[in-house]
Design brief:
The protein is an alpha/beta fold. The protein is built from three helices and five strands; from the N terminus they run H-E-E-E-H-E-H-E.
Length: about 170
């Protein structure tokens, strides 16, 4: 009887180095994007509004202006100070003007408002004069924002929107 001899198969090797590199790049990207999105919002105690309407789809061209309980402004995770101080007012005006120009606002045609939306997140304990200063900056001739949203909490709505089945 002839003995059966096992046929040796060639050994294949897979190099996972490039796959691991891609995974680390994706992880790094998602960590950076998440931290930038969180940095735009400062923790404030929002006031309650019974008739608040939730914003289903936020606009593309938006800026979030945070006013803490001391009245200090935070825009894009940078602290500016109190808006009634002239140097802060000038710096915030220039920043919002640049944001309006990014949104397609032409400063030479001052009759048309900009396409920029501004969300004001003010602490419930902040003095109103600081929010009023922010609104005065928004109507400045070189900014001309006409879409201002005042962010509030609605006590009748659930904390997070419920997800519908099948979507």
């Amino acid at each position: 009887m002839a003995s059966k001899r096992a046929v040796e198969l060639p050994v294949t090797q897979i190099d996972f180095t490039s796959m691991i590199d891609i995974c680390f790049l994706l992880i790094t990207f998602f960590i950076m994007v998440t931290s930038v999105a969180k940095a735009e919002v400062v923790e404030v105690f929002l006031p309650f509004a019974n008739n608040a309407i939730p914003d289903e789809t936020p606009p593309e061209n938006r800026v979030i202006v945070n006013v803490d309980r001391k009245g200090e402004l935070y825009i894009r995770s940078k602290k500016y100070g109190k808006p009634n101080e002239p140097n802060v007012r000038k710096e915030v005006t220039l920043l919002l003007q640049a944001c309006a120009e990014e949104a397609g606002f032409d400063t030479s045609k001052k009759e048309k408002p900009s396409n920029l939306s501004v969300y004001i997140r003010s602490d419930a304990n902040a003095m109103y004069k600081y929010v009023q200063c922010v609104m005065m900056i928004l109507v400045h001739e070189n900014v001309r924002v006409d879409k201002v949203h005042y962010v509030t909490k609605n006590p009748t709505l659930p904390a997070e929107p419920e997800k519908k089945e099948g979507s």
